[in-house]
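Dear Dr. H.,

I hope your travels went smoothly. While you were away I took the liberty of generating a structure for the chain from your last submission, since the lab meeting agenda had it listed for discussion. I wanted you to have the full record in hand beforehand rather than looking at slides cold. The sequence, exactly as received, is reproduced here:
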Amino acid sequence: MNRAPDPVKVFVSYAGPDRAWADRVVEALEDAGGAEVSVTVSHRDFAVGGNAVLAMSRAVDAADVVVVLLSRSYLEEQRYTTEEWTSALMHRADGSRRRVVPLRIDEVDAPALLRVLTAQDLFGIDPDRA
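The corresponding predicted structure, in token form, is as follows:
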């Protein structure tokens, strides 16, 4: 009997002020991927009262794909988002790499390490259409 393949694990990394965008991206991924995609997003999947930093670390480590919602808020260095996107770029313990998908939701310049990746611009587009 053939076993269904494991779902692609996606972590959506965003700054708190961009939660509405994160919800739209999560909904789009889950609608498009069905059972073939497992999406993790902090405000829905991290336990209230739990260790958020540890939960983020585990989510990034487990992810096959990290979707990065680039905005002015996201790029504020004091946010934990800096740790999220920088750790997402690191090789896994087995030497493999996870895919990082930058989505620009504000007209911002990506950090140098993310500029090598093709970003999709969503700013200036109706959020429901984007």
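Two observations you may find useful: The first strand starts at residue 8 and ends at 13. The beta strands are 8-13, 37-41, 65-70, 99-104, 120-121.

With kind regards,
E. W.
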